[in-house]
Amino acid sequence: MILDSSYKIDEIFFRWLYGFLVILGLFYLLIYYGLISELVKNDASYISLLILSVFLLSTVVLGYHVYLLNNCLIKFRIFFNNGSKIEDYCQLKNNDYYQSCINEYILNSTSNTKSLSMSLDDDFEIKLYKHHNLFSLISDIFIRLGLVGTVIGFIIMLQSLSDLENFDINLMQNLLKDMSLGMMVALYTTLTGLITAIILTLQNKYLESVLFIVYSSVINHTHQFIK
Predict the structure, then answer these.
(1) Is the dihedral of CA 76, 79, 83, 88 positive or negative?
(2) What is the pTM of this model?
(3) What Å distances lie between residue 28 and 24, 54, 156, 166, 206, CA to CA?
(4) What tens digit of pLDDT does each residue of 2-41 get?
(5) Are the C-beta atoms of residues 227 and 9 closer than 8 Å to each other?
(6) What confidence score (pLDDT) does residue 87 get?
(7) Is the per-residue pLDDT at 111 higher than 90?
(8) What is the chain written as a DSSP string?
(9) Higher pLDDT, residue 2 or 67
(10) Which residue has the higher pLDDT, 93 or 210?
(11) For residues 111 and 92, which has the higher predicted lDDT (pLDDT)?
(12) Total structural domains in the chain?
């Protein structure tokens, strides 16, 4: 049985929480050493700030989905490890998205005990992994936003070169200042986009592993009941 494996169901959400605390610790260090203020000050495009804001929001939302999935697994363990029938599980309130998906799949599967359509399994998987795919898209957007910031930074650099007409010390100083500003925009946005995309991807991989456990548990118990 999936639910009797060595995987500790009670620790699923706490494992994500430990990772989230590490992320908060890193942000605290960045703020403490003034790196965040430097980022905001030197990124004239404000793309880095946008990426960081969306990243923090996405991390919290992803953690909430892990929490909901953890609750679903705990309910499975309580019901089926105590010998309860699968139809009793469907009596639970559809108080969240994943619970609704599971109840819908079980009801649709048990309504026809003669044949279990594989399309039901596929539909259940698509619905269950809906938000996982969304977080994958957000990670990809972070990288693309970083590239947009890189382009904007180079545009700022090229604009400063267009103002160069005559050789003058003061003009050259202003030119180098503008060029450094454009380079900082390019580097900061690229670095921010890559780091946040990597961290969110790692979190999404963890969400994927939890989704697989939920999917396998529901599929196995439903098929066993029908057989």
Answers:
(1) negative
(2) 0.85
(3) 6, 17, 31, 47, 24
(4) 444 445 777 899 999 999 999 999 999 988 888 888 887 8
(5) no
(6) 64
(7) no
(8) -GGGSSS-GGGHHHHHHHHHHHHHHHHHHHHHTTHHHHHHHH-TT-HHHHHHHHHHHHHHHHHHHHHHHHHHHHHHHHHHTTT--HHHHTTS---SHHHHHHHHHHHHHHT--S---HHHHHHHHHHHTHHHHHHHHHHHHHHHHHHHHHHHHHHHHHHHHHT--S--HHHHHHHHHHHHHHHHHHHHHHHHHHHHHHHHHHHHHHHHHHHHHHHHHHHHHHHHHH-
(9) 67
(10) 210
(11) 111
(12) 1
d(CA 190, CA 145): 8
Q: How confident is the model at residue 165 (pLDDT cuts 50, 70, 90)?
A: low
Structure tokens at 60: 């919290």
Cα dihedral 101→105→107→109 (10° resolution): 180
Sort 162 into a burial class: Cβ within 10 Å, 0-12 / 13-18 / 19+.
exposed
Lowest mean pLDDT among 59-63, 106-110, 125-129: 106-110
Evaluate whether 89 touches 106 at the Cβ level (below 8 Å).
yes
Amino acid at 102: I
AA identity, residue 30? L
Tell me what pLDDT residue 34 has. Answer: 86
Over residues 163-189, mean pLDDT: 70
Q: How many residues does the chain have?
A: 227
Type of residue at 12: I
Domain hosting 124: range is 2-226
Nearest CA among 129, 101, 95 for reference residue 208:
129
